[in-house]
Amino acid sequence: MTKLSPEARMAATRPTSLSLRLTRLEPLAYALLRAVFGIVMMTHGLPKLLGTSHGSMANPMAGATSLIANVLHLPMAPQIALAVALLETVGGAMLVTGVLTRPVAALMAVQMAVICYIHRQHFAWIDRGVEYPLVLLAVVLLLVARGAGAWSVDGLRAARRYAGA
């Protein structure tokens, strides 16, 4: 292994003009990730609340209630299913705008972890496998760790608090 001199090491790690320009796009890219995740969650919650089909599920609320009652063996399955549908719909909208991002994302992380547990025996390329909720779990954990970001209601509130301090 060749050792680099301090000057060579600095030159190797110095950002290029392209990487500097792309770095400026990071807040926008993060806002887009947060918003797309929120929209995806809303597409799962709205059909439950509206009683419409979702993909191969004719009645997603009944499907969620059945999973909660028969797989997780939790009491009050209809009420929990309603809470999940509200989290996906209202919480998804909150993530799109970046409102209370960390608490909402933390609740969704619990939801994604439970869904990963439910689908743990099925992996990639199998209908209702674990790979999709696993990717969503990774995304929502990033939201929990980083918060809303600059392009959000939470970011605007933080900037105003900082400016007024």
Characterization of this structure:
With 165 residues, this protein is mainly alpha-helical. The protein has one domain (27-164). The chain contains eight helices and no strands. The longest helix is centred in the N-terminal third of the chain and has 25 residues, at 26-50.
* Whole-number mean pLDDT: 89
Instruction: Supply Rg.
Output: 21 Å
Helix content: over 70%
Sum up the overall morphology in one term.
Answer: globular
Give the structural class. Answer: mainly alpha
Sequence of secondary-structure elements: HHHHHHHH
Which percent band covers the strand fraction?
A: under 5%
For the sheet with most strands, the description reads:
none
Number of helices, where a helix is a run of at least 4 consecutive DSSP H or I residues: 8
The total count of strands amounts to 0
As residue ranges, the low-confidence spans are none
Distance between the termini: 51 Å
How many domains? 1
Could you give a short description of this structure?
With 165 residues, this protein is mainly alpha-helical. The protein contains eight helices and no strands.
Salient structural properties:
165 residues, single chain, mainly alpha
